Amino acid sequence: MPDVFLLLLTLTLLAAGLAWLRRAVVVALPLTLLGLATTAYLAAAHVTDPVLNEGERALIVAVSALLAIAGGGPVTTRVFALVDGSRHTQDDGSVSRAGEILRGGTWIGALERAAVFASLAAGIPEGVAIVLGLKGLGRYPELRSGEVAGAAERFIIGTFTSVLWAAACAGTVRLVLWL
């Protein structure tokens, strides 16, 4: 039955990849959220008692890590669009304003999600504090200057969304692997 978890996570990763496309995001993003939630539910409900070899465990962790990194971008972008009051999920308004205010956010967010996922999946929650501390220190000059209104709010919203997504992926992988 571990094939079910791997299949669900892989399909969820594919949906997350499609969510990066402007035309597909309306369907792909809900499928991404549903796929992760379904995987977590099945693992938590003990629907199956997974007997996984090392290769299967490694593959589940790898797919989940990719999902944490790739899936967080569209989720965060959608949250910014909701905050901006935009009806479109990926219009120039929310994405470009976020990029203008806090440059490099896409790459920083991906690295942040990778680090948060790795620390939580490994059972080292203290790593999240280190990641957030480093990110805050790195962004401090931009946030302190106050040159652009809303920079601090975007930093907090983007960080929380990104960290919550990575934590959900790490929690799911821990449930699947019974760690």
Summary of the model, kept short:
The protein is mostly helical and 179 residues long. It has helices at 2-18, 25-44, 54-84, 92-101, 105-121, 126-145, 151-177. The longest helix is centred in the middle third of the chain and has 31 residues, at 54-84.
Task: Describe the protein's architecture and organization.
By secondary structure, the chain is mainly α. The protein is globular and about 55 Å long. The relative contact order is 0.15. The protein has seven helices and no strands. It has helices at residues 2-18, 25-44, 54-84, 92-101, 105-121, 126-145, 151-177.
Shape: globular
**How can the largest sheet be summarized?**
none
List segments where confidence is low: pLDDT < 50 over at least 5 consecutive residues: 88-96
What Rg is obtained from the alpha carbons, in whole angstroms?
17 Å
Q: What percent of residues adopt helix (DSSP H or I)?
A: over 70%
Q: Strand-residue fraction?
A: under 5%
Number of strands: 0
Order of helices and strands: HHHHHHH
Helix tally equals 7
Terminal CA distance: 17 Å
Structural class: mainly alpha
Average pLDDT for all residues: 85
List keywords for this structure.
179 residues, mainly alpha, 0% strand, globular
Write the layout of secondary structure elements.
Layout: H1 2-18, H2 25-44, H3 54-84, H4 92-101, H5 105-121, H6 126-145, H7 151-177
